[in-house]
Amino acid sequence: MADDKREVVVTDIKIPFVSMVILMVKWAVAAIPALFILFIIGGLLTMVLGLIFGAGWHHWGTGRLM
């Protein structure tokens, strides 16, 4: 019974246009908080990497060479 394979081929999906639009609007609304969270994570990662690797660059732009 465990070796039985069943293959399924989907040939057509019928979905009303209004339902598809509603689904896409829900995806767009769900993407807003996801992007906000990704921007926060990216900002924190940039700050950490800046603290680690940017420590020698504090004189950059002051006209002095290191």
Give a written overview of the molecule.
The protein is mainly α. The protein is 56% helix and 0% strand. It contains one helix and no strands. It is elongated, with a radius of gyration of 26 Å. The model has no long low-confidence stretch (mean pLDDT 84).
What's a quick, concise take on this entry?
This protein has 66 residues and is mostly helical. It has one helix at residues 17-53.
The best one-word shape is: elongated
The proportion of residues in beta strands is under 5%
The total beta strand count reads 0
Head-to-tail CA distance between termini? 73 Å
Main beta-sheet strand count, sense and barrel state: none
Q: List the secondary-structure elements in sequence, H or E.
A: H
Kindly report the oligomeric state of this protein.
single chain
Give unreliable regions as ranges: none
Please bin the fraction of helical residues: 55-70%
Mean pLDDT, rounded to whole units? 84
**Secondary structure category:** mainly alpha
Total of helices: 1
Radius of gyration: 26 Å
What's the topology here?
Layout: H1 17-53
Which features does this protein show?
66 residues; mainly alpha
